[in-house]
Amino acid sequence: MGSEVVEMRELPGVVSIREVGPRDGLQNEEPIPTEAKVRLLDALSRTGVRRIEAVSFVHPKAIPQMADADEVWQRATKVDGVRYSALVPNTRGAQRALAAGFTEIEVVVSASDTHNRRNVNRSTAESLDDIAELIDLLHGASAQAEVIIATSFGCPYEGDIDPARVADIVDRVVADGADRVAFGDTTGMGTPRRVRDLLTAVRDRNADIPVLLHFHNTRGTALANLLTALEFGVTEFDASVGGLGGCPYAPGASGNLATEEAVHMLHDMGIDTGIDLDALIGAARLAEDLTARPLPSGILRAGPRTALTPHP
């Protein structure tokens, strides 16, 4: 029986986590009061996290949990050193985000046509045409445009997604001027093998575009996926406090990667995030109180068993 030598790459020393609980997390929960959303956003701003997805500017009939986005953002305390972003579905949403003062704005397109139609009632190709115009709008207002490709690792309606299809979408949005791309594991179908296949397909064609990965822990693979991406040199990830969230248009896709679980693992590996894990756990407990249900984070249940600061 032969042996296979696996080349281990040096892992990055610093990772940037974007906290998405206030938007992606809460949009899949029962609506909570505006004051509660502001409390959670402010608590997260004090943890040392450097990026927060604060709100989304969507039609209240589509996502009623985000109906008070303008008020939440107006009332939130903006902390120096924290980059806040907003998600938008279309030009109208982008105009609202720009008017609110956001300079980092995300827009979503699904690699799966079926999921894209469920999400925004357009084909993937139609959404890409819209996004090209939206990128021009954002750049004209000196804002950055991030394109999130949902269902990058699989679709609840279509099943497996060919990495080449995702790479084709990246080709298109890079040509249209996207500042970065993100790959969403909308259904929690991602595994280390799928992460490896996707990153290889994309990097072979667009090695220089900044990428961010967004994992769900629906099937228990989020941390393994994050480690695989680290080995590919990825240093930007989404995570959600307490493991809040999911996707309203992907059945069974609840459960984002819990921020405190990611930070706990990264710090024990000697990788700095800039985040105070004690403060983050406190914010996760607050999220659990505000949503009035147990959250899936293992760190909330068991607590951290390693040092709370990066271990060299």
UniProtKB/TrEMBL annotation:
Domain Pyruvate carboxyltransferase: 15-281
Protein keywords: Lyase, Metal-binding
One function term, GO molecular function aspect: lyase activity
Source domain of life: Bacteria
Pfam families cross-referenced by the UniProt entry: HMGL-like
NCBIfam families: PRK05692.1
Family: Belongs to the HMG-CoA lyase family.
Name assigned to this protein: Hydroxymethylglutaryl-CoA lyase
Organism, scientific name: Micromonospora gifhornensis
